[in-house]
Amino acid sequence: MRWLRPSVVGQAVRLKVTDIGYATRLFLKLLGTLPATFRRPRLLSEQIFFLGNYSLAIILVSGLFVGFVLGLQGYYILQRYGSSEALGLMVALSLARELGPVVAALLFAGRAGTALTAGIGLMKAGEQLAAMEMMAVDPIQRVLAPRFWGGVIAMPLLAAVFSAVGILGGWLVGVVMIGVDPGAFWSQMQSGVDVFQDVGNGLIKSVVFGFTVTFVALLQGYGCKPTAEGVSLATTRTVVMASLAVLGLDFVLTAMMFSI
């Protein structure tokens, strides 16, 4: 078949290697913009507010309902073994270790990530980035860098909010609605959750996811075709690629953190 010809396979491999090299160069350039970006705190704070505000509503609502489900299902499971007092511990560990960083990152990719890709793609389609280059202004330094570091900072904050609201939701269902002892709920949580092992690992995950989702969104927007169809396809690729990257990295990070 035609697609199995060596020339076709070689061309496909060469294009993939070229894309990987382009993404690597862009990522290294963005990492190198850290000192200059923090010398412009206004641009950075605007992007943190923009990205965080874009995702805060869906983070709050989703975190609350995830906490509701964890409290309800966790109670029925723990009740079988006479351990319903450990409901607070189960909810807190589930959110701090896994659900908080992962679900918040997926929501961040679907809400703020698509906004980043569409915004950069429209600027490219409108030749605004080309105009900056004509005026000797680096678009990576002026446009991409504040958005990149803003997303890296906003993602852990959103994950923390998600986990906190989820714990509140678990408390509402378990203590207020079902009747679990509130003292046992909070004491089990405080004694069983380790700050460095559980909360710290969740924080590391959220930072890694922030780098991943924000970079994928900017890469797709900056490298898309300057047409309406190109921007649309880039926005779709952002959600798919960022979500798969988050799930894959979650497995790798979990295996590294809790097996050492």
How much of the sequence lies in strands comes to under 5%
Beta strand count: 0
Low-confidence stretches: none
User: C-alpha Rg, in Å?
Assistant: 22 Å
Assembly form of the protein: single chain
Number of helices: 9
Mean pLDDT: 88
Please tell me what the overall shape is: elongated
Order of helices and strands: HHHHHHHHH
Into which percent range does the helicity of residues fall? over 70%
How many strands, which pairing sense, and closed or not: the largest β-sheet? none
Head-to-tail CA distance between termini: 48 Å
User: Which structural class fits the helix and strand makeup?
Assistant: mainly alpha
Please provide a written account of the structure.
This protein has 260 residues and is mainly alpha-helical. 87% of the residues lie in helices and 0% in strands. It is built from nine helices and no strands. The protein has helices at residues 6-32, 34-38, 41-79, 87-125, 128-134, 139-178, 182-192, 195-222, 228-257. Helix 4 packs antiparallel against helix 9 (228-257). The longest helix has 40 residues, at 139-178. The mean pLDDT is 88.
